């Protein structure tokens, strides 16, 4: 069976033999204040000009306090937010990491994904997860315990809608009584499982176009990647589907500053960052998604320029 023809977003982010870099948006956003849209569209355009591969956004339905500092994130709807970033950029991919599928109707998810892919010129990547906040499931009238089953059962309908292949799209037409959501996309919109989504790696290997996971100590992460590659051998016929890793990053101004661990990431100067990224690539990581956590007060545009001009050329 031939490999599917993916959209431009997939081509931009998943490049054979090369590690690509992207950023979670809003840039440097922590806490309850709403992000400045103008500042973020300007930074998105800068990331595009510097040659980064992707901009990502989270799906946070309710402002539920979380984390070690017990703050509540105030984030815009990811599809609307990413549409604004798409309008401010030309080449960089835009991705959701991750839409909480058990809390959304799959036809709504598919409609939004198709719209955003069209608006962006084929640059959209749809990442989805199962969610983990009990308060959200209670508010939306969904079962927390059944979220894995809900994720698994809703995935095929989204997959059918996001494919240009007539045979695959038949499942959508069957579900809607023969009605389409929109004209089929010109190329397949990639779908990424983010986190475990309460599925086995074998299921993810068989159904997803990539898998995204969080930062771990390097030895443990290498073990996870090995399990992913084993699952691909078993369920995807050996197809090399990408592995994405998120990294909380506090980039220090001193290039020679040593690396030290942060929760889900690291604080470091750029020399150690380059070495770390090169090790990740050797393990099999295809894309790194930075979440900037600038504890020293460095401006995001300064950090973007340093990574774009001093780190990207070394990868």
TrEMBL record:
InterPro entries, A to Z: Diverse_substr_monoxygenases, Luciferase-like_dom, Luciferase-like_sf, Luciferase-type_oxidoreductase
Keyword rRNA processing: no
Keywords: Flavoprotein, FMN, Monooxygenase, Oxidoreductase
Pfam families: Bac_luciferase (PF00296)
Membrane-crossing residue ranges in chain numbering: none
Domain Luciferase-like stretches: 21-231
Record's keyword annotation contains Zinc: no
Entry protein name: Luciferase-type oxidoreductase
A GO MF label: oxidoreductase activity, acting on paired donors, with incorporation or reduction of molecular oxygen
């Amino acid at each position: 069976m031939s490999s599917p023809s993916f959209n431009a977003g997939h081509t931009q982010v998943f490049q054979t033999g090369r590690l690509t870099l992207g950023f979670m948006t809003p840039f440097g956003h922590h806490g309850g204040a709403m992000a400045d849209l103008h500042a973020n569209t300007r930074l998105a355009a800068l990331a595009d000009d510097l040659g980064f591969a992707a901009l990502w956004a989270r799906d946070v339905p309710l402002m539920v306090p979380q984390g070690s500092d017990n703050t509540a994130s105030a984030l815009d709807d990811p599809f609307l937010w990413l549409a604004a970033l798409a309008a401010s950029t030309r080449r960089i991919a835009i991705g959701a990491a991750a839409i909480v599928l058990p809390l959304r109707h799959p036809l709504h998810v598919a409609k939004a994904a198709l719209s955003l892919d069209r608006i962006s010129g084929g640059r959209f990547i749809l990442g989805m997860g199962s969610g983990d906040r009990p308060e959200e499931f209670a508010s939306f009238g969904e079962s927390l315990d059944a979220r894995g089953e809900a994720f698994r059962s809703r995935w095929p309908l989204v997959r059918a809608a996001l494919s240009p292949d007539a045979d695959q799209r038949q499942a959508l037409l069957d579900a809607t009584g023969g009605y389409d959501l929109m004209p089929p996309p010109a190329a397949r919109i990639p779908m990424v499982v983010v986190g475990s989504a309460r599925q086995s790696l074998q299921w993810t290997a068989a159904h997803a176009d990539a898998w995204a996971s969080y930062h771990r100590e390097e030895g443990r992460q290498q073990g996870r990647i090995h399990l992913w590659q084993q699952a691909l051998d078993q369920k995807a016929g050996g197809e090399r589907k990408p592995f994405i890793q998120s990294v909380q990053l506090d980039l220090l101004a001193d290039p020679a500053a040593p690396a030290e661990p942060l929760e889900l990431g690291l604080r470091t100067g750029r020399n150690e960052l380059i070495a770390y990224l090169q090790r990740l690539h050797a393990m099999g990581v295809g894309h790194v998604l930075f979440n900037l956590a600038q504890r020293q007060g460095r401006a995001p545009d300064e950090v973007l320029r340093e990574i774009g001009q001093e780190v990207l050329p070394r990868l």
